[in-house]
Amino acid sequence: MSEAPVAPPTASADPARERGIGLLVQPPQPRAGWRVLPARVVAMCAVELQKLRHDRTELYTRAVQPALWLLIFGQTFTRIHAIPTGGIPYIDFMAPGIIAQSAMFIAIFYGIQIIWERDAGVLNKLLVTPTPRSALITGKAFAAGVKSLIQAVVVIAIAAVLGVALTWNPLRLLGVGAAVVLGSAFFSCLSMTIAGVVLSRDRLMGIGQAITMPLFFGSNALYPVAVMPGWLQAVSRANPLSYQVDALRGLLLGTPAHLAADFGVLLVAAAAGIAAASSLLGRLAR
Amino acid sequence: MTEDPADRTAGDAAAGPADAVTCAGLVHTFGETRAVDGLELSVRPGEVFGLLGPNGAGKTTAIRCITTLLPVPAGTVRVFGRDAAQERMAVRRLLGYVPQQLSADAALTGRENVTLFARVFDVPRRERAARVAQALAAVDLTEAADRLANTYSGGMVRRLELAQALVSAPRLLILDEPTIGLDPIARTGVWDHINAVRAATGMTVLVTTHYMDEADQYCDRVGLMHRGRIRALGTPAELRQGLGERRRAEGTGGDALPTLEDVFRAVAGSGLDESSGDFRDVRSTRRTAHRVG
């Protein structure tokens, strides 16, 4: 049977130092207040980047679909001239929509990862750390944003190769990054919220597939809002993807956009998504 | 060594704030089921306390209340005097937690897995690398630190999870079935590392296990839980001796000293219990055993 030391941990620093683990008896100084949130966001984003560094397969396979959209759909419809685009080639018009779509596809299935983490015990372990649930969800949301951002860089590169006339203004590209991250934060929170309701991977996969295409076709990604029937215009106005595409189009192509409204809606949507997903996280912890 | 349990029985669970864990009148229900039904428990600082019991006894629910994963609807739970319902963040800073499942992220290296927990426990950047290296060294994973965790054996993953829990210098280490599915050599290895770190740091260890031999060998005291309450409490030797004396008094036992498993059977009964564990418990246990096996 093992001996139970009577001394408190701090008094046991010497044996720990002798064993070369002196730091493991000193609890770290806790961060307080507003500094907790950015620290957790950085921690979660670092994990996503480390995973992508070890295995880039997903990055390459996920690039196939947007490449096909641009290559086949984009080039074909550019020839047809069927969709009014305000004087720019159709492939240019749709490129921001495809960037937003590929980012959304990554984020909308992010809830599957959180259910996997629940099943593997990772989520419970993170919930036993000094991380408020809202900070954990915000960290996950921005980690999804980082993953989407890297995907967006790949799609922008493909679009540039296909001759899309994109801006290379660093400030505008920074805005593009912000729009991609905010949109992905919302869609990943939507996914994590659904995960908190359905609690199973299979159900979430089904719901994810059911809502992805309506979100995509119910936005201005492929055609301008003006050509939509009235009911679809209403759907498009309530769809955060439309605001993301509008911002991306304005920033990347210089077309008329409502950047303040677009970023305002994306910010509010991301905040609401974080609040909803945080409130349901407890269901996944049980 | 442990004190006489007669001095501090389960009934004195409302002991002073110096106790590592104090549960007093803890009740937790899931629908109609009272998973924990008036639990009284105190774990002393520096000891290895084993929480034993059949599936469905309420061990995991009690652990989840102590770790703040579940709310405390009735009764109180304190960790080193901190209220687990009111001071969640303060309690979490005192804990290191290793769940039953193999919870290391297979897509990251050992070092990255530990670094994540250093970050979420606010280890400053200037000492992060050194602290992570010490946690990995404490469990003999220095050489394998930069390999992906999916190349680790089951015993190595358990040691990695131990390093994740140790990096924040917890005062209370909570281990839920830490050796499930491991071969005897790996089990011994995990326990050797737990004991070595405990001896060096003085931390308290609260462990649930189904392996009676482990509880007998490594726990200073054990609490046998059944139907949501502690039914027997003391050192393994005291519990064995107590059952032996009862058997002799009743004339039902021979001269052989009972094992801890006999005590377990005497408390929990040996028949099949239809309410023991649910589908998710069994699936989780099998998945963990499969992954380490």
From TrEMBL, chain A:
Keywords: Antibiotic resistance, Cell membrane, Membrane, Transmembrane, Transmembrane helix, Transport
Keyword Magnesium on entry: no
Pfam families hit by this protein: ABC2_membrane (PF01061)
Origin: domain of life: Bacteria
Topology within the bilayer: Multi-pass membrane protein
Chief subcellular location: membrane
Compartments, as annotated in UniProt: Cell membrane; Membrane
Transmembrane segments: 59-78, 98-116, 149-168, 174-199, 211-232, 259-281
InterPro entries noted in UniProt: ABC2_TM (IPR013525), ABC2_TM_bact-type (IPR047817), ABC_2_transport (IPR000412), Nod_factor_ABC_transporter (IPR051784)
Domain ABC transmembrane type-2: 57-284
Family the entry assigns: Belongs to the ABC-2 integral membrane protein family.
Name of the protein: Transport permease protein
Species: Streptomyces tropicalis
Automatic annotation (TrEMBL), chain B:
Subcellular location: Cell membrane
Xref: SMART domains: AAA (SM00382)
Annotated InterPro entries: AAA+_ATPase, ABC_transporter-like_ATP-bd, ABC_transporter_ATP-binding, P-loop_NTPase
Domain of life: Bacteria
Molecular function terms, GO-annotated: ATP binding
Pfam families cross-referenced by the UniProt entry: ABC_tran
Main location: membrane
Membrane topology, record value: Peripheral membrane protein
Keyword Protein transport: no
Domain ABC transporter: 21-252
Swiss-Prot/TrEMBL keywords: Antibiotic resistance, ATP-binding, Nucleotide-binding, Transport
Family membership noted in the UniProt record: Belongs to the ABC transporter superfamily.
Protein name listed in UniProt: ATP-binding cassette domain-containing protein
Source organism per UniProt: Streptomyces tropicalis
